[in-house]
Design brief:
411 residues; alpha/beta; 5-stranded mixed sheet
């Protein structure tokens, strides 16, 4: 920031404005926007320096708009796509040491160091931070004692369901998406698995005696990626099929095709595929399958009678975002029978103010994370006009292929 100190002075910046300017310049540097050229033109046009702070706020907003809509670049390449469940250390709460699922998971890692602990928080909340995402993950096996079923968050789509909840049978992901809110929410990048899923089932059954339930199963992990370790997708699929009042969503970026032969289709068990342009996948969604791999997995699911949802969420405002998302929708239409898709969700990047600070600390060199977001009611995201521009653009593009497709939009 020292290099650009004169700009802050010429904008008559308050401390808050200085922070906003610093974030704007950092984003410009990360995505290759010619901020020097933008500033030069502002000085040549007489827009800088400003006579007072009121004028400075207007010019700072103009600078942010020009930077964020500038011709930047994304020059990252995809990292190794494969993920691995291998681990060299497993922590186990003493209370569930003899649980059948604990023993089954342990049998998969005969060479791992095993340590008994009193409570998972003793390990999980004393972790060395989400730098853990860069090393081989440890596994923590624990008992879920409370908060098994929680109300759906306002920043998540409810698809107009009256009783919207989510559950977390596992936390942590084998993928490494730079913008993932888990890096801001949790202190550890390790896998935390709650082995007592039967207690969650009982709690859902109690709720179903009072009303129907719409339950999201995989917000805090990608359960399909962990299936060979936990078997939770199969268990949830069976549970949903035997409980008529339950509608469940399992969200994934996975592309494994060996799962469908193990499951029986059920209209109320939704498999929701998160899709992004290949540019976003290559730059920010490390170790995840390609767009084509995800689409072909979704097509196989559709062909076999499974219920499929497509999630274009979160949309990222990358340089050239319109062209990238238009190409993505063209590819989706080429690969999938869109008329068979149950519905679609469209949303832009958003994250709570508490999580963003930790996420930025975990990903200091990610343009997707360092974008100069605005805070509206404790949630950081793109400015409202940009949110609307993005969601309307993508929704219109989808409806151009399938006019009657149901789209749930949340900016």
């Amino acid at each position: 920031m020292e290099e650009w100190g004169y700009v802050a002075d010429d904008l008559c910046c308050s401390e808050t404005m200085r922070f906003e300017l610093k974030q704007c310049l950092k984003y410009a540097s990360l995505c290759g926007v010619d901020v020097e050229g933008i500033l030069r033109s502002m000085y040549e046009n007489g827009d800088l320096p400003c006579p007072d702070r009121r004028a400075g706020k207007k010019r700072l907003l103009e600078l942010k708009n020009r930077v964020c809509d500038g011709d930047g670049i994304i020059d990252k390449v995809a990292e190794y796509r494969e993920v691995s469940l291998a681990t060299d250390r497993i922590f186990i709460e003493k209370e569930i040491e003899k649980h059948p699922r604990t023993e089954a998971i342990l049998s998969r890692f005969p060479g791992a160091d095993v340590e008994l602990i009193d409570h998972y928080k003793d390990v999980y909340y004393n972790a060395s931070g989400n730098a853990n995402n860069k090393r081989k993950k440890h596994i923590i096996l624990a008992k879920k004692k409370d908060d098994r079923i929680l109300p759906g968050a306002p920043v998540c789509q409810d698809f107009d369901e009256s009783y919207f909840y989510y559950t977390s049978c596992a936390t942590g992901c084998l993928y490494d998406c730079e913008y993932c809110y888990l890096k801001g929410m949790h202190p550890s990048g390790d896998l935390l698995i709650h082995v007592n899923i039967e207690d969650t089932f009982r709690e859902v059954e109690e709720m179903l005696t009072e009303h129907e339930v719409y339950l999201c199963l995989s917000y805090d992990t990608d359960l399909i990626v962990l299936e060979e370790l936990t078997g939770y997708v199969s268990l949830w699929s069976e549970f949903v099929r035997s409980h008529p009042g339950l509608l469940a969503e399992c969200r994934t970026k996975c592309a494994r095709n060996d799962l469908w032969d193990k499951l029986e289709p059920c209209e109320r068990m939704i498999f929701a595929f998160t899709l992004s342009p290949e540019e976003v996948i290559n730059a920010y969604e490390h170790r995840t399958p390609t767009l084509l791999q995800r689409l072909r997995c979704a097509k196989e699911a559709l062909d076999l009678g499974f219920t499929v949802r497509l999630c274009f969420d979160p949309m990222l405002r990358i340089p050239g975002w319109k062209e990238a998302y238009a190409r993505m929708v063209d590819t989706v239409n080429e690969e999938l029978p869109l008329a068979k898709v149950r519905d679609v969700s469209v949303g832009t990047f958003r994250i709570s103010q508490d999580y963003l600070k930790r996420l930025r600390a975990a990903e200091p060199n990610s343009a997707a994370v360092q974008y100069p977001f605005v805070n509206e009611g404790g949630v950081y995201g793109y400015p409202a006009n940009r949110q609307k521009e993005m969601t309307v653009f993508l929704s219109d593009k989808l409806r151009g292929y399938t006019p009657d497709i149901r789209i749930d939009t949340l900016a």
